[in-house]
């Protein structure tokens, strides 16, 4: 497989995952803005912070109004992280790697792009936002479904998986990082339960309220949420799950190509650490420091994959 | 569809019977679906200088063009003869130049031609094939009467439309294909792969590795490039994926550099190698011409083939066919006036309003004058151009082109068409796919069928024997 193609697959799926994550984040933020107008502005700021867009937003807008934030995150072409910009990048990459995709995956991506371009041609009124966000998630689910249902499980498939799970891990870690002060078990808060709305945003942004309740009942504690999002190996958006998928895909490439790469060693290390991690130790080390460390390792791993598999040259 | 006596022409009988039994509203609906189908599969072409939002669809007409098996046999024999002659001409012109010595083609025509590559003199391409893929543009003027408009021996495009038009018709009107026996076109990608593989260079070891070279996703024909690579199971590469490694052209893969044996390039000669041609080109591969000359890679079509479809040379095609095949040409050439000749120029100037004038190096319907359809001012403007640079132009009479029906809101209506059959040439055989790309002028009376000028396409059926 061409290095360029491997890189195109990796980035195509990173972008697809990112657009879905942004839709989820927006959904969570919108829910808070609706139910708690007093804290809406703070909540929007934290959504933008998670999406890494605070600076870009503030350069254009002064206040955190729902309408402006929604427009900025969904359809502003000047915002490289808006859903429309990201989907365009995903589709450009899909065009680049057209020969490595099945017809169904290509068509799902292209149709998704056409649908979103029409959907986001005009500002989305607040009353239509939930529908619009659900369409964005659905379009991504179609691409994912076509990918899993039709693609050969060869190196190309594993590059799509690497893109998906590297991005997802990054996203979950960012949500935790932005919300970490909520989860810090300070002396004052030990034993007290978290603010209902705030923990809900965290879980909602990873679409896991039900799963969490199913596992933990009504025991809503900082340690439980952190453990769920970092260490729970059955939770498909947890760091541990993502690390396991990345480790497996790089393991496949190592076996297939018969070459041991640095990226494979790094990914294995990250996975092992999460596999054996204890939430108590993480809080002892400091949640923020722990997440920062993870984000740093994740981005070095991304750069290493790029070098090992010759995405650029 | 109608013959001279206003009755339905024989090849259309079956289709017409089906059509008469259909509800026009249903066909109208299907036509709408076809557009959605093309958009979904991304069958678009980019328009230069516009935003990516302007990926356009080529209009598609749902009424097929039907050609009888007998007509097709005659046509394909003529094409085969012509393509063989072109290939022999190219070999000759880059070696002993017998045809010039014999005085059948004037020396100046080659010597002063930009499409002639001195770098190719004395070079032997693998299997002696120059024109691996040719798309001959043909028009029909009457029963069994065909004229060649252009030979397109450089990098003919449009084959993806031929294949997708058929695919679309199969999806929309499957019942037609069980009623009417139609020759298949879907074997083209397999034949292309086989044909290119059969031209592998001597340094090829094992199964030939084939790749398609594209200028990139912003090229207007990118869809076709990726489509062909996909259908052949070949890699789609850009210049920056390639470099010279150990005397071969190699592509950068996830596991290092791998040698390519056959490169189906969709990049023009002058961009192919910055060391040998345009030094500013970012699209090509530095040193590829040296590898080519040493037998390290097959380039399809071979560099320098453009000389064969130069419009100034076109008028010599009857001589070229006779010189190399020893036979009379089976297909007609359109009568062509060379404006470089003072007498012929005078004739052209005197009859400008009745003629089609073309630029010698032009393509895509740009830089031409269609006399009968042009305004007085346009004709006068062209007159000035002709007097200024006569050698830059040729002129042809407009032919009494036959028409085929298209589907309009008011029912069937006649439009002018041309046909581009696709020819594959390898050392052991010539394959011509049964059919080709039919391009159709979408407005009434128009003779311009180019997609860049608003023309559309339709499926082409060659009936089984």
From TrEMBL, chain A:
InterPro entries assigned: ATP-dep_Glu-Cys_Ligase-2, DUF403
Residue intervals of the DUF403 domain: 1-309
Stored PANTHER family: BLR5612 PROTEIN, SLL1039 PROTEIN
The name this protein goes by in its record: Alpha-E domain-containing protein
Source species: Parasphingorhabdus cellanae
Phylogenetic lineage: Bacteria, Pseudomonadati, Pseudomonadota, Alphaproteobacteria, Sphingomonadales
Automatic annotation (TrEMBL), chain B:
Gene3D superfamilies attached to this UniProt entry: 3.30.1490.270, 3.40.50.11290
InterPro entries (UniProt xref): ATP-dep_Glu-Cys_Ligase-2, CP_ATPgrasp_2, UCP005522
Leader peptide range in chain numbering: none
Domain named Circularly permuted ATP-grasp type: residues: 64-441
Pfam families noted in UniProt: CP_ATPgrasp_2
PANTHER family, A to Z: BLR5612 PROTEIN (PTHR34595), SLL1039 PROTEIN (PTHR34595:SF7)
Protein name (record): Circularly permuted type 2 ATP-grasp protein
Organism: Parasphingorhabdus cellanae
